Amino acid sequence: MKGLMMDRPLLTTEILKHAVRNYRHTEIITRTVEGPIHRYTFSDSEKRIKKLANALVKMGVKPGMRVGVIGWNTYRQFELYYAIGGIGAVCHTINPRLGPENALYVINHAEDDILFFDTTFTTLVAQLAPNLNTVKTFFALTDKHHAPDFDAPLLTYEELIAPESDHFVWPEFDENTAVALCYTSGTTGLPKGVLYSHRALVLQTLATSSASILSYREGDVILPVVPMFHVNAWNMPYSCPMIGCSLVFPGPGLDGESLSELFETEKVTHALGVPTVWLGLLQYLEKTGKSLPHLKSVLVGGSALSEALIRGFEKHDVEMIQGWGMTEMSPVGTINALSQESKKLPDKERYALQLKQGRALPFVDMRIVGDDGAVLPNDGETTGNLQVRGFWIIANYYKADKETVTEDGWFDTGDVAAIDEDGYMQITDRSKDVIKSGGEWISSIDIENAALLHPGVAQAGVIGVYHPKWQERPLLVVAKKEGQNPSAEDISAFVNERLAKIAWPDAVEFVDEIPLGATGKILKTRLREMFKGYELPV
Ligand code: ADP
Questions:
Q1: How far is the CA of 330 from the centre of ligand 1 (A)?
Q2: Annotated catalytic residue 17
Q3: Does 449 sit in the ligand 1 pocket, CB within 6 Å?
Q4: Per DSSP, what are the bridge partners of residue 369?
Q5: 30, 113, 207, 471 — which has fewest CB within 10 A?
């Protein structure tokens, strides 16, 4: 027997409606690309979103058409998210850090019709323009006064929306309609398109809004450093309007000084971003003696959280909460929100718990399997290939010719992890980065985290290198902190004290900087190239 409830579609514009109905005075604040701070309310924002929707429809943007956006986290990109999706078109967010070749590839692959870009990226877009196969119209995300020089005809965003009405009736359509498109970073091969549906993002919004997942409340002030040009800024452009939180968009100012200033002036209570950003901020705070008087928590994901970061921020009374996910998961999979009980654990045990990637969000199933596909136990010890399934997890890549999921309907994340009896998942590595020493697998994350606790270490990356007896052994590569000069022996002794003997790195090497990829993760491929043919001391 079928239930007799209304079958109304889950569309992202419903989130906007809710925000305007309940939190119309709540603010969205942006450090603009042009310089000054811009502030307005959800209610003002909705009016401009509707103007933009009118403009897009007038321009001939039809349902299903892809609209490219290369932009910083700003109120304008927020408007694009809702207006493009709201008319049934697809907002294709492009990561400018992918480099020109990949950017060209993804825009042509997505067949974007229109391209909006922040003026910071004018040179990049001008360089791409002659080879863009489908883009017919370019818009700079600014006003006439700040319009950049550009070879092709160019309008500005403000000129586009200015003449339009702020009345628009959102169309209703199937909730499985695509709303956004984001490509993976393509560190191993070409970027792959992940096409999100309205249904997926609305359900992810509901799950992330739960107080026991992320403890954000109405009135909190949230600053996503995690970019809107990649993985939907961890869903914050949807979760914050849903909960009634203010959004603070940092624009292009992602360095320690700019962030610290914005945290202070806007009284930011919660922030989100990858570990490298927080390491940068911590170094800035150490150097200047500044503090974080309003900040309560930071959600850290994209790569592993380290004990050094937890301790560093604890000094400022800021809780570091780890999350894990991926482009293919819209992107949130787990969040490690400590229970009130576990917050009382002795430091050592609490750190060990915080270093786990966390428990699954509602409606996300996780399992680990062996290379033969057999499901492995959740005992906290056994590691295996991490597979997931759920409402906001990819079924297939955009325009892919082969299936992405397993025969029994799971997506293989490419991560190697253990899951304990309480549901906490801990990643040891990407499967391609795992160090296979004899019959054992060594976690590079554990070694990197141990090294980061050393006061002279700014960045640490571990790779497996050839060993005649053990097949592979860990090499620890370190970038020193400014003004510090630890020796290789000193670092070895320091990390060995904190690791099981099997994981003791066989050598320590120094570099000026650890190579980072387009989403702020250590580029292990590049690190392996740098140490190709490296001979470990026997
Ligand atoms: P890409 O950078 O290729 O676009 P994503 O941004 O989708 O990839 O990153 C997904 C991957 O990032 C995960 O599969 C995992 O390996 C890694 N990752 C994400 N969060 C964490 C975390 N908290 N700890 C360790 N690794 C993480």
A1: 12
A2: no
A3: no
A4: 375, 385
A5: 471
524 is catalytic: no
Q: Is the pTM of this model over 0.90?
A: yes
**Residue 24 pLDDT more than 90?**
yes
Distance separating alpha carbons of residues 413 and 191, to the nearest angstrom: 15
Q: Which residues contact 21 (CB under 8 A, 6 or more apart)?
A: none
Closest protein CA for atom 26 of ligand 1: 303
Is the minimum distance from the CB of 304 to ligand 1 under 6 angstroms? yes
DSSP states of 174-238 as a string?
-TTSEEEEEE---SSSS--EEEEEHHHHHHHHHHHTSTTTS---TT-EEEE-S-TTSGGGGGHHH
pLDDT in tens, 442-481: 999 999 999 999 999 999 999 999 999 999 999 999 999 9
Helix (H, G, I), strand (E, B) or coil at 65: coil
Residue at token pair 């790779």: 463
Token couple for 182: 């984001």
Query: Where in the sequence of the chain do the CATH 3.40.50.12780 domains occur?
Result: 12-22+35-198
Task: Give me the CATH topology for the region 435-530.
Answer: GMP Synthetase; Chain A, domain 3 (3.30.300)
Q: How many CA atoms lie within 13 A of 34 on its CB side?
A: 14
Q: Which atom of ligand 1 is nearest to the CA of 427?
A: 25
CA distance 286 to 483: 13
Q: What residues are paired with 365 via a beta bridge?
A: 389
pLDDT band, very low/low/confident/very high, at 486 (cuts 50, 70, 90):
very high
Share of the chain above pLDDT 70, in %: 100
Nearest protein Cα to ligand 1, atom 3: 185
* For residue 188, pLDDT beyond 80: no
CATH 3.30.300.30 residue spans of the chain: 435-530
pLDDT digits (tens, 9 = 90+) for 291-344: 999 999 999 999 999 999 999 999 999 999 999 999 999 999 999 999 888 999
Determine contact, residues 119/251, Cβ cutoff 8 Å: no
Residue 301, ligand 1, Cβ within 6 A? yes
Q: Which of 238-241's residues contact partners 24+ apart within 8 Å by CB, and which partners? A: 238/12, 238/15, 238/201, 238/202, 238/204, 238/205, 239/205, 239/208, 239/209, 239/214, 240/216, 241/15, 241/16, 241/18, 241/19, 241/23, 241/42
CATH class of the domain whose range is 12-22+35-198: alpha beta
Q: How many angstroms is it from 267 CA to the middle of ligand 1?
A: 29
Q: Is 333 in the pocket of ligand 1 (CB under 6 A)?
A: no
Chain centroid to CA 526: how far?
21
CA-closest candidate to residue 178, choices 160, 159, 200 = 200
Residue for token pair 């509901």? 206
Can you give the pLDDT at residue 480?
A: 96
